[in-house]
Amino acid sequence: MKLMPFRLPQLGKRAFASTIAGAALAASLAAPVPVAAQGDLLVAPTRVILDGRRGTEVILSNIGSEEATYRISLVLRRMNASGTLVEVSPDEANELEEAALSMVRYAPRRIVLPPGQPQAVRIAARPSTDLPDGEYRAHMSFQSIPKAAPLTEQGSNPEGVSLRLIPIYGVTIPIIIRHGEVAATVALANPRVTTDVNGSLFHLDMQRSGESSTYGELRVLKQGSDEPIYMARGVAIYPELDERQIAYPVTAEQAALMSGPVRVEFREMPEKGGALIASVDTVMG
What we know:
Layout: H1 13-29, E1 36-38, E2 41-44, E3 48-50, E4 56-62, E5 68-79, E6 85-88, H2 95-103, E7 104-107, E8 110-113, E9 119-125, E10 134-145, E11 170-179, E12 184-196, E13 199-210, E14 214-222, E15 228-237, E16 243-250, H3 252-257, E17 260-267, E18 276-284
Parallel strand pairs: 3-11
Antiparallel strand pairs: 1-2, 2-4, 4-9, 5-6, 5-8, 5-10, 7-9, 10-11, 12-13, 13-16, 14-15, 14-17, 17-18
InterPro entries: PapD-like_sf
Protein name: Pili assembly chaperone N-terminal domain-containing protein
Keywords: Signal
């Protein structure tokens, strides 16, 4: 599979500063750009879609009080039927995953972030000329690199060993490459609420067909009302799945309101226009 020549996108100084400032402001306000956070690291956006023609940027921001170092790498994840992303080793990669790893380019691969100082990671994809149409996906990992712990004086026992566990924080976001003509359709089925000693869960079967993933917002409404009883943002179904079983916690009040005639909708995210993707009308008891 022959790769096309590659050059990361470059921004002028003014445009670069404007991009960082805008994303940092969005991260601080939690809207409209989705933001992932772990430890003292903010990452925006939380999902990247590339078409192989134009690159983009992801903004990292250190909201802690100390300088932090992060390692940036590509990893593989697959979604199971419950929506959990499971780690995949390079040895287990299929052809789509191998192609995704080979075509994604990014820089830098290590970042030192002072407190309150955002920085951009440039990302692009260069598909081969003979790449089949389809959706290809890798995940970008931003992992903290702990500072070396200073040597401390030993206690009265000179041969004693002291262990200190240092948590390593990280954020992982999908990098999706859509090449050629791809599309997907979604159907919703069997919405229901279950309740046990641990609380209530809203269940829904989401069925997907086509070549691409889907991503959006789930809403439960009383029929005839525009005000959601319940809403879940950032719900995805990746191409490796034909069906995903949703099971999200709901409050006792929300569970009670879902009893009776309701409408369940799956819509594009508001920042993408909020168009209706799929819906189902039902009576829940």
